[in-house]
Amino acid sequence: MSEHRKNVARGSVRRQRISRTFYPERGKCHTFLGPEKFLFLLENFFSFQYLARWTTFKSYCSVHSLGVWTCSSEDLIGFLQSVYDRTLSFSSCYQHLSAVAHYYRLRGLVSPSSGPVVRMYMRGLKRKSLADLASVKRAKPLSR
Predict the structure, then answer these.
(1) Among candidates 45, 46, 15, 9, which has minimal Cα distance to 32?
(2) Residue 57 has what pLDDT?
């Protein structure tokens, strides 16, 4: 058997194992990874995403000479507005907000994201992003 065929065969077995890990209804759950290992990898993936967004927040605070741990709700809204202006996506703003709240919880502090002003701002931002999506013109379908 050629080396290429061996690699293809190995890849298909690996794909089967991974698909059983992520889709338990297809067969035995967690045959490739144990449940503990799977949860560990999942937690590390989210902590890596949070770390990237937390770094963005820290750089915003340093540019605007704000304290990272003494940030107010208004400062957090300013950060979220800058993220929205840069990416034009509600979900990315929500991810940044979740990351900030996560690191405040790890530190044992009350997060500025828990205030009613931030919740109202996020509601309005979601409404605005949906309105922006509705205003996008769609192309006419091709006719035969």
Answers:
(1) 15
(2) 94
